[in-house]
Design goal:
mainly alpha; Methane Monooxygenase Hydroxylase, Chain G, domain 1; 13 helices
């Protein structure tokens, strides 16, 4: 009988079975995850019971966004290198992360207007509008707006990170360049230069994607990439919709704490299109 499967490296035979209890000289679960730092990062400023929910909701979202950026930067690199299998796998993961963030609004929606009103004065001018990570996600996906850099002028490292992303090819730019490298006709002006604003629809790009969709056997990898991009944009749209409906449920149409128009501003964001050709071609198929 072979019992070596239960052995753990560095443990004597008497410790092979059962949980380790002494961590005076070993790394524990809490050590590995830096739980002391994470679980002590919630510092409510008000006496309101519901502020803990508000803080945890937003901190958890920022952690998910950190993972999204980790994946999206890797997706862009994979597209640049033409490694489509890895790119598609990571895009699928990002879409599932967005699903988690969509459902997180269900928890925040348990907060009623009077409960939010009790803590709102303590928020000052802080607002999710100021999230550097969210802005970087928008930029890397092609929804760029140079004016948003001003929000981070007082934080040089954040400002520099966003400015670099503003000037870099978006993830979708790399997908379009890949189309050209695969022999599909894309207008030269679309391939050169980097836009500092939202992605604009291009007829040659739509024609290239139409060719992909029209001959999926020949272009299966590109077809799969296109559908993964559509999945991601769909998840982003769900997130934006859930965001605005939660805000309307809790504060109605009051201005946002950061000076935006609140729900009215968020409703305008519902019209954002990240990958215009991939949705535009549906009518022609």
């Amino acid at each position: 009988m072979n019992d070596t499967k239960d052995k753990q490296p560095g443990l004597c035979p008497a410790q092979w079975h059962g949980p380790q209890m002494d961590f005076s000289a070993a790394m524990s679960y809490g050590d590995y995850l830096a739980l002391d730092s994470i679980l002590n990062a919630q510092r409510p400023l008000s006496p309101a019971h519901d502020e803990m929910l508000f803080i945890v909701q937003h901190q958890a979202s920022e952690l998910w966004m950190k993972l999204m950026l980790h994946e999206l930067h890797a997706v862009r690199a994979a597209l640049r290198e033409g490694v489509l299998a890895s790119a598609c796998k990571m895009l699928a993961r990002v879409a599932r992360i967005m699903d988690q963030m969509v459902h997180a609004w269900d928890v925040l929606a348990t907060m009623t207007p009077p409960e939010y009103t009790a803590l709102r004065p303590y928020l000052g001018a802080s607002s999710g509008f100021q999230s550097c990570q969210y802005r970087e996600i928008e930029f890397i996906l092609g929804n760029k707006n140079a004016a948003m850099l001003a929000v981070h002028a007082s934080a040089p490292a954040r400002h520099a990170r966003l400015e670099a992303e503003l000037r870099a090819p978006s993830l979708y730019d790399e997908a379009v360049r890949l189309l050209a490298r695969e022999g599909l006709a894309v207008a030269p002006q679309r391939l050169h230069g980097v836009a500092s604003g939202p992605t604009a629809a291009d007829a040659s790009v739509q024609a290239a994607w139409l060719e992909v969709y029209g001959n999926t056997e020949r272009h299966w990898a590109l077809y799969e990439l296109a559908e993964k991009l559509v999945d991601l944009e769909t998840a982003m749209r769900f997130w934006r919709f859930r965001h605005v409906t939660t805000v309307e449920r809790i504060i109605g149409f009051k201005p946002g704490t950061g000076g935006t128009a609140g729900a009215s501003y968020l409703r305008k964001m519902l019209d954002t299109v990240l990958f215009p050709e991939l949705f535009g071609l549906r009518t022609q198929l």
